[in-house]
Amino acid sequence: MTMVDVPTLLTTIFVLVDDWYQGHGNHFVPVTPGPQPTFSHSEMLTLLLAMDYLPYPGEQQFLGFIRANHLSLFPKLLGQSQFNRRARTLDGLLEQLRRFWVQQMGYHFEHTLVMDTKPVPVVGYKRSKRHSDFSGSATSGYCASRKMKYFGYKLVVISTLSGMPLVYALVPAHTDEREAANAVLCSVRGCDILADKGLIGDDWQAEVTRAPGNRVLTAKRENQHQQIPKAFERLLMHFRERIEGVFNEVQNTGRNLERLLRKKVEGLCTHVAAKMASHTLRILLRKRFGIDVLTFEQSEAQAS
Fold first, then answer.
1. 172 DSSP β-pair partners
2. Cα distance between residue 93 and residue 96, in whole Å
């Protein structure tokens, strides 16, 4: 793998982002009267993506590092409050960029996929939510695998078997697993979806097959009359570990999804979009340029 320094990494990301923005991305930005911003959308997107690759858990510390060490690359860098306001409007643009890279690498042609959910807490479970910006959309929920009560959202992801997320959605934490799945299943067609036992239900699975044409495959509970072959159940478990690896990398590398400290719904959406896009970019850099970007958790683990 190729070793690169931070300026080279930032420049590479900017070139990839700006090429896309000039050719495609600017069509997604509404035309507004008045002068154009001096700090471009391409620069904003570059820093939002790079934020997960450098060892600064907060936005303020990250921008301070860029200002102190790489201001020549971003001479019009915004202050933290302005940067934060701009960032909250860019979740849609980040998602369009991520989808472009997914298609560019050909992952959208895959038809055997994996689906799972993970909790995204936003407010301490015992704290008052009355005056929180999240009170209108986030809800209380329970994660059975971690035996955890929390207040926030579920992140629902459909991934390829190799670990590339194709589609994702944030839904309120109390959302039933099948209803949560519907939020993403409508975005894929004619696929076999490997999922956990939370999506058992013959009537619902038949409905999914009729509408978007997907087939949801799950293991069976022990008390069910009809069982699947043990070899196929082991295969399901093997491939489900792939998406658990995706969740582990998305959550535990860079800034932890559960500790983003966002105070606004728009801010949370932007930083979830940035996490998913930076994960996609990491794979693109590895495949196209042989650059294996180590996030700070990975770097610290190797150093020890």
1. 153
2. 5
- Tell me which residue of 177, 205, 207 sits closest to 193, measured CA to CA: 205
Cα angle 29, 120, 82 (rounded to 5 degrees) comes to 40
Per-residue pLDDT at 301:
41
Question: pTM of this prediction?
Answer: 0.86
What confidence tens digit (pLDDT) does each residue in 191-225 have? 998 887 777 777 788 888 887 789 888 765 554 55
Coil, helix or strand for 7? helix
Strands (DSSP E) along 161-265, which ranges? 165-172, 192-194, 215-217
CB contact set of 121 (below 8 Å; sequence gap of 6+): 150, 151, 152, 258
Distance CA 268, CA 3 (A): 32
Could you tell me if 137 and 206 are in contact, meaning their C-beta atoms sit under 8 angstroms apart? no
What is residue 188's predicted lDDT score, i.e. its pLDDT? 92
Q: Cβ(181)–Cβ(156) under 8 Å?
A: yes
> How do beta strands 148-160 and 165-172 pair?
antiparallel
**Helices 91-104 and 265-289, axial angle in degrees (round to 10):** 20
| Mean predicted lDDT score pLDDT of the chain | 84
Query: Could you say which residues of the chain have pLDDT below 50?
Result: 223, 296-304
Q: Which of 5, 75, 81, 9 lies closest to 46, judged by CA?
A: 9
Predicted pLDDT of residue 91: 94
Residue-level length of the chain = 304
Q: For the chain, how are helix, strand and coil distributed in percent, rounded to 5? A: 50, 15, 35
Question: What is the CATH number assigned to the segment(s) 110-259?
Answer: 3.30.420
Q: What is the pLDDT of residues 30-57, one digit of tens each?
A: 777 777 889 999 999 999 999 988 878 7
What would you report as the CA-atom Rg of the chain, rounded to the nearest whole angstrom? 20
Q: How far apart are CA 257 and CA 247, in angstroms?
A: 10
Could you tell me how far CA 217 lies from the centroid of its own chain? Answer: 23
Task: Give domain limits for the chain.
Answer: 6-98+287-303, 110-259
